[in-house]
Amino acid sequence: MTKVLVAFGTRPEAIKLAPVIHRLAADPARFRTHVCVTAQHREMLDQVLSFFSIRPDRDLALMRPDQTLPALTAAALTAMAGVLAAERPDLVMVQGDTTTTMATALAAFYARIPIAHVEAGLRTGDRFAPFPEEVNRRVTSLVADWHFAPTARARDALLAEGVAPERIHVTGNTVVDALLAARARLATAGVPSPALAALGGDARPVVLVTAHRRESFGAGLRDVCLAVRDLVERNADLVAVFPVHLNPRVRAAVEEALGAVATRNPRLVLTEPVGYPDLVWLLDRCRLVLTDSGGIQEEAPTFRKPVLVMREVTERPEGVAAGVARVVGTDRARIVAETERLLRDPAAYAAMAAAENPYGDGRAAERIVDALARG
Fold this sequence. Notes:
single chain; alpha/beta; Rossmann fold; seven-stranded parallel β-sheet; six-stranded parallel β-sheet; 16 helices; 13 strands
């Protein structure tokens, strides 16, 4: 039997690892699964744990107000070293590109414990975009033993860096597994949150907006907010829903640029971060998505919703190549122009909405666990 320690700290990690955790737990003859969370993001993480009925065996509670990257990295590395010494797992599993992922992988490497990396091989080629995620995932790849690449392009990136072919498994992205399971649950539950109930019977187009990238702090994030303001003011039938990230710098920027507008204009809806069921419902309900999130670039195409990526580069070029996403940067005028084109040009909208999701078929967790079982 293989003892697997699954470690994560943020909501996206929890969403993408939930299908794998459940798949491992369904095979107790082969795997004994322990879950450790760093709680790098406390409130948003807890929502997902509850939705997917995951109870951590260890909770390190590392989140601190306005925590710096050096402080978080040091705390996570030190705490995970202690966990690994106590748990003595046969395998450590991490996901994606967070500070928790990188610190856990390093701790496992120092302890000479094999490492499985879910969503391996994503690259932009720019170590400062996204920051610090690009370096986090490169460091994780350097020490990982199992590389579960979501796409052929991710596999090719790993091969180009010298990873042995037999250590790479192309699985699809587990985010699609999670999304399909969540949509099935919501099909009978209706609108998850009373705060969103009014949108359920509103025929007006909804644009879902998310923004939180560190590399956009300052002028970039301000331009994103001003573009959202322009869209609401220029398009009388448009509703913009903007769940505001908990990072204090994001909240301050959004409040400065949009707070007064939202107060006088009910078509600009600024909310607290929404729970995962609410996010899935919004993705299903909205007309299109403006985001700098990585996960949403993978999720929205499942619902055939066009994605405008408010970053200069993306580590998920498969969506751009497939036509489901377009990189528009943080330029205010370009965001407005590209959004209005999709709202007003049915052919342009249909071209993006009709494309197939390149990120998976909902069987990624099954492939990951089968690969581990084969050894």
